Amino acid sequence: MKTLKERTTEPTMPEPEPEPTTEVLFLCSYDGCGKTFIDAGALRKHSHIHGERQYVCHYEGCGKVVILLLTFAHHVHVFVIYIQLYCHDLK
């Protein structure tokens, strides 16, 4: 029977070198951007930062711009709650 010390000194195989990837990259075509993504969905989501489908808050003094509709809906909801709780004169 081998002792524990003898078992741990057995030679190990070297790790293989990683193979070069052949993934298809999706390139952002917006002027001056040039970012690449590994799937079309990520590129589609990224394209919103270049001005497509931006939502602007219409409340006075805010003007916040968000990209996702869900984020915009949450932002407006916060304003509605704030007005109901603290701005009794605006109701």
How are the strands of the largest sheet arranged?
1-2
Number of helices: 3
How many domains, in number, for the residues?
2
Q: Flag low-confidence runs.
A: none
Cα end-to-end separation: 86 Å
Form type: elongated
Largest sheet: 2 strands, antiparallel
H/E topology pattern: HEEHEEH
Q: How many β strands by DSSP?
A: 4
Structural class: alpha+beta
Name the average pLDDT.
Answer: 76
Rg, nearest Å: 27 Å
Report helical residue fraction: 25-40%
Question: What do these coordinates show?
Answer:
This protein is an alpha+beta fold and 91 residues long. It folds into 2 domains: 31 residues; 39 residues. Helices cover 34% and strands 9% of the residues. It contains 3 helices and 4 strands. The strands form 2 sheets. A two-stranded antiparallel ribbon has the order 1-2. It has a two-stranded antiparallel ribbon with strand order 3-4. Strand 1 and strand 2 form a beta hairpin. The chain starts with a helix and ends in a 5-residue tail after the last helix. The model has no long low-confidence stretch (mean pLDDT 76).
In short:
The protein is α+β, with helices and mostly antiparallel strands and 91 residues long. It contains three helices and four strands.
Please give the structural blueprint.
Layout: H1 4-8, E1 26-27, E2 36-37, H2 40-47, E3 55-56, E4 65-66, H3 69-86
Antiparallel strand pairs: 1-2, 3-4
Entry keywords:
alpha+beta, single chain, 4 strands, 9% strand
